Amino acid sequence: MVTSGVFKSSLPITGSHEGAGTVVAIGSSVTNLKPGDRVMIGLKTHRCGTCSTCRGPENLRHYCPNSDGDLGIWRDGAFAEYAIADAAEANKLPDKVSFETAAPLAYAGRTIYRGVLQARLEKGQWIGLVGSGGGLGHLGIQFAKALGLRVVGVDARDEGLELSRSSGADLVVDARKGVDEVVKEVQNVTGGLGCHTTVNLSEAEKAAETACAITMMHGRMVQIAQPTQVSVPFEHLIFRDIRIEGSLLCTVHQSQEMLKVVSEHNITVKTNPFHGLEQIPKLVKLAHSGQMQGKGIVIVDEEAIKMENKATPKLV
Fold first, then answer.
1. Is 100 in contact with 76 (CB distance < 8 Å)?
2. pLDDT-based confidence at 277, cuts 50/70/90?
């Protein structure tokens, strides 16, 4: 989306809005971090603190429209040996969470964790994930299960269906069967009602429609995917009273909560590691192939990985 001009980024720019590493230096006003801390960096930099959003509810302040920009989009990101990040947006890593797990959580994890929270469900209720076998989806399955929810996973790729099953979804449905068959299979396991809330993670043409269709009447659909247009038949809105809302990512507080869930529930990120910045073109090629399971990561500092594995052998 950066290279295609969607965000009107000023190029060239260092990519990646997902990063984790060790603090090597801090600014004079930083009090929450110190050199040597292991951290997951945030997306935003320097929220204004004065607009109505910043002065509003804590769980919405990260929507600030007047920040100094997002890493990897308007400011240089994490595809580098050193990155500059906003300390106020960073999270300390639990001892048990590795850099390799934390980096994808910096955006993919924070995005889907908020989506699961936005579902507003209680233990035992059903959440649907359309696009369940991708980088966000397989994390969403694990987060939802950790929070006591029952999960329907919908995907249209063999790799995605396989990852949905291995991540613990209670029901996995192949979207290639068509909307009607997907709805039938979901209703068969939900007492004829459908999911209480569905989160759409797919940009496919019928993904939003499918997400609404498998949601029970008066339920909620959370839209996270970012296609050019989101198209839903009016019947779902008018006659079935499906409420649609968008979601971006977690607050800093929610992100710390997410990392705690990852640590306590041994949540794993399916990663495709590439070693060295020179391997980035290969990662991009794999990501665009449609064959990748989970998330691609670039390991910049091999020695740091060896040191944390030696210090804490049982990392997630």
1. no
2. very high
Q: How many CB atoms lie within 10 A of CB 182?
A: 23
Radius of gyration of the chain (CA): 20
Q: What digits encode the pLDDT tens for the residues 242-274?
A: 999 999 999 999 999 999 999 999 999 999 999
pLDDT band for 291, please (50, 70, 90 cuts).
confident
